Give the backbone structure.
Amino acid sequence: MQDPQRDAIDGADLPADSATDQDNPLAQRHIRSFVLRQGRVSSAQLRYLDDMMPKIGIEHRPQLLDFAATFGREAPTVFEIGFGMGETSAKIAAVRPDTNFIEVEVHTPGVGSLCKLVAEGNLGNIRIIQHDAVEVLRDMIPENSLAGAHIYFPDPWPKKRHHKRRLVQPPLIALLASRLAPGGYLHCATDWEEYAVQMLEVLSAEPLLENTVDNSHGGFAPRPDYRPLTKFEQRGIRLGHGVWDVIFRRK
């Protein structure tokens, strides 16, 4: 069951782009990375949106980002697809102050919530882009540039006929892998076991990636210290539910 911690970025059908892109395999099948669900935006979220997005927001544009100019410093940069209401993202940014984080989300209440957390925590290492993550990756993130990427608890689309809508699919992972620097990591997490198996299979099949763990754990990684337990995850653990982390690195 989807909870408020889940991101609002889901996989959708993979429509073909224009014939002018027929020689570009990534452009041929553009993975629309979300289904827009705006929800209710609170007055506090609107306030922080108005105040913070001019400071930390980045508009989507077909131009590669200069990370040093964007953050005002040279530092490793991590890209997150879908941050939900932003609690986990803010906690990670707080414990990793020497890392820059580009946070991508389309869900306006979530963007407002993370803006509030950034302001309250005085987090200078977060920038937010409210746009389709696939287009951001394609248009704005240089190849071989990211220190890492996070996809946490994406919508599992549990019904078999909806599996094609899942975010973690080969075209997206190929695009993400191309944006990772050598040695950069891709970290996925889910509380849906069948989706965890799919994640493991998709990442294992990407030629640019290799697993950070051996098969002694079935290919799944221990939860790293930087990823905090969410309240929903803690509740699930108490009820005996599992959570699976999949962490690969760029060869």
Q: What stands out?
A: DSSP finds nine helices and seven strands in the chain. Confidence is low (pLDDT under 50) at residues 1-28. The CA atoms of residues 26 and 171 lie 7 Å apart. The two ends are 35 Å apart (CA to CA).
